[in-house]
Amino acid sequence: MTDVLRRGRLSLAFGFLVQGVAFALLVTRIPAVQDRYGVSDALLPAFLAAVPILAGIGSVATERLVRRVPPSRVLRWSQPVVLLALLGVGAGEHLAGLGVALAAFGLAVGALDASMNMLGVGLQRAYGRSIMLGFHAAYSLGGIAGASLAWVGAHEGLALWVSYLPVVLVLLPAALVGSRWYVDGGGEPGAEGAAPGGGAGKGAAVGLGWLVPLCLVMTVAYIGDSTVSNWSAKYLQDVLGGSEQLATVPYNVYMVTTLLGRTVGDVGVRRFGAVAVVRAGALVAAVGFAVVAGAPGAWVGMLGFTLLGLGLCVLVPQTFAAAGRRAFELHGPGASDAAVARLNVFNYVGFLIGSPLVGVLGDVWSYRGAMLVPMVLVLVTLVYAKSFAPQPDRYGGGHERPRTADVGRGSNGL
User: Fold this and answer.
1) What secondary structure does DSSP assign to 31-93, as a single string?
2) Euclidean distance between CA atoms 214 and 208, whole angstroms
3) Which residue ranges run through the membrane (predicted)?
């Protein structure tokens, strides 16, 4: 069992990394996509909004799908679709083709995000200790790699399909091979037999009203994240007077500090508990937004974006972990998968709200003032921080129970 879980953890981390690469390659080359297809500035927001909307639909569909098939199978086949859709975006010639490729990308991303977080929650439960932040650290690493590859393609003036094709040729077969070692339900006996095909079974039908606070936290976290990704460059250049070259740095700094925070975050959760880590993350993120809003110049603004990376990075992984753990404690593994799928929808809700929110407030008020809104919203997390604490479960006790994987193994290593 230890070897099974170790391989499952490594293969899933690679899946997160691949997703980070693919998503970064798409979003960082949006101007090139716009030029290739002649998409007008008026039409571009509709194309961009369609991706998270369809991803939300894909996540909802995955909740139903995993009642019949294991999440590992959903992940195994949605990841190639994401990569092929990315290649389709780069290789098409007409707007209709772009629409089809982006639709496939969005639906597959929703299924992929939901299923890989289901597997991550199950593995964390099996390990009996926090490992979720490590998976999201792999995603951040993939995002940095993807953004770097996109920069090379743009710098060399490569066609989109030329930039995307080598990445797809390498990552697609690697992801398929790695998917052989995915582990459903944390390797728990009977987890794959809860329903025909190994899905969630009756647990998925259980009411999940208690999930609402975590949905709010997820939304707020992605409002903060989309604020940085969409507005950091413009803010640093137009508001804080930074150069065009310097304006490209804040998002890279944010991604690097997100990676660093997630890399060490699991250790913090094990030592201080999820509630303390989430509270600290929310406070650091709020301070980061305050520094950005009040910065007298570009370098102080850079400090604010650095703090944002360190603060926001813990919220999303811990929200998924808390939802899956609480659902399992109350209703069993089937409800855990359903909770993760429903929670994942609010990833896209936050993304859809964040960018236009700052833009509208910046136009009608000021961009400095607009940065105070996500600062206030992220403080909402403090109100709901207790939702991240383990609850007394049906087996008795209020903590995750060690699984077979932890027998005879220390707390270090995979």
Assistant:
1) HHHHHHHT--TTTHHHHHHHHHHHHHHHHHHHHHHTTTS-HHHHHHHHHHHHHHHHHHHHH--
2) 11
3) 12-30, 42-61, 81-111, 131-152, 159-183, 203-224, 272-293, 299-324, 345-361, 367-385
- Structure tokens that stand for 290 in this block: 């305050």
Q: Show the DSSP H helices in 159-211 as ranges.
A: 160-178
The values of phi and psi at residue 301, to 5°, are -60, -40
Rounded Cα gap, residues 349 and 32, in angstroms: 26
How far apart CA 55 and CA 74 sit, in angstroms, is 14
Please check the confidence at residue 217 and state whether its pLDDT lies above 90.
yes
Q: How far apart are CA 109 and CA 85, in angstroms?
A: 10
Residue-wise pLDDT for 230-240, tens only, equals 899 889 989 99
Give me the sign of the Cα torsion angle 252, 35, 139, 372.
positive
**Burial status of residue 243 (CB atoms within 10 A of its CB: 0-12, 13-18, 19 or more):** exposed
pLDDT-derived band at 394 (thresholds 50, 70, 90) equals very low
Q: CA separation (Å) from 269 to 17, 265, 279? A: 22, 6, 11
Query: Considering only CA atoms, which of 308, 272, 280, 279 is closest in space to residue 383?
Result: 279
CB 67 within 8 A of CB 199: yes
Vertex 212: Cα angle to 45 and 188 (nearest 5): 105
Whether residue 77 has pLDDT greater than 70: yes
- Rounded-to-integer distance, Cα 27 and Cα 39, Å: 15
Which residues, 6 or more positions from 211, have their beta carbon under 8 angstroms from its beta carbon? 323, 326, 327, 339, 342, 343
Task: Please give the Cα distance from 167 to 158 (Å, whole number).
Answer: 14
Report CA Rg, the chain. Answer: 21
Q: What's 210's DSSP letter?
A: G
Encoding tokens for residue 158? 């490569």
Tell me whether residue 244 is exposed, middle or buried, using C-beta atoms within 10 angstroms of its C-beta: 0 to 12, 13 to 18, 19 or more: exposed
> How many beta carbons lie within 10 A of that of residue 282, not counting itself?
26
